[in-house]
Amino acid sequence: MLKEITIATALSLAFSSATFAQDGDDKGWAGEASLAGGKTGGNTDTEDLSLGLKLAKAGDNWNHKFDALADYGNVDGDRNKERFALGYQIDRNLNERTYIYGNADWYSDKFGAYRNGYFVGAGVGYKVIVPDPVGWNVEAGVGYRSQLEQDYANPNFDPLLAVDPVTNPAIIDGDRVNEVAVRGFSDFDYALNENVSLYNDTEILWGESDTYIWNEIGLSAQLMGDLAARVSYRLDHHTDPTPGKKKTDTALRFGVVYTMN
Questions:
Q1: Range with the lowest mean pLDDT among 10-24, 34-48, 102-116, 182-196?
Q2: By residue range, what is the domain housing residue 214?
Q3: Fewer Cβ atoms within 10 A, N terminus or C terminus of the chain?
């Protein structure tokens, strides 16, 4: 896992250091920090907590985006969710609507369809609708993806025989899959009024071994100053997860968002 973190971090630093000196027109970092969660009781006690950070730095020619996410969950006191994710993207404007980009993403998921993975790629983006009050960007690109399967129970394990890591393993170590992947992304934002806004983000990573699709839709309402309330729903889907893992995960979150200008 340390190797994947190092790769993602090194790529992010390389992208940013190569462009900061060229972008004398940047306007500083802005973004948001979010805290969301929930708790239910009864026959099953469930607790969820999500921490998020999104930052952006805009300039006339170069734009930078950084995001981080940590998800935790417990059911009846037992951990059932532990996911971390980091992402960085740099854009170079070609004109008012078209841009090229490079991006690097990394994740670790203890209970998910895959244990960890990273993606490094590049492509082109187009601003279908220019912001105020609606903004819609679409992106398409290609890159290199690496994913490590979770360890899983051997479906052919014979309990009557001695456990042998070669001939009769009880648990099979997951394989790492490295491949070229095609990426598509949609980023839609709509300011309904001065206090309420809607977003809907979708990403597709297609590879020969697995196609990963996620979609998140959220509604934010201003509370006071830089503080807002948010409700969001996210769906993550793998077409070919680790054996024994479900293809689809969903999360409904309620929380607060602090805007940093």
A1: 10-24
A2: 2-260
A3: C
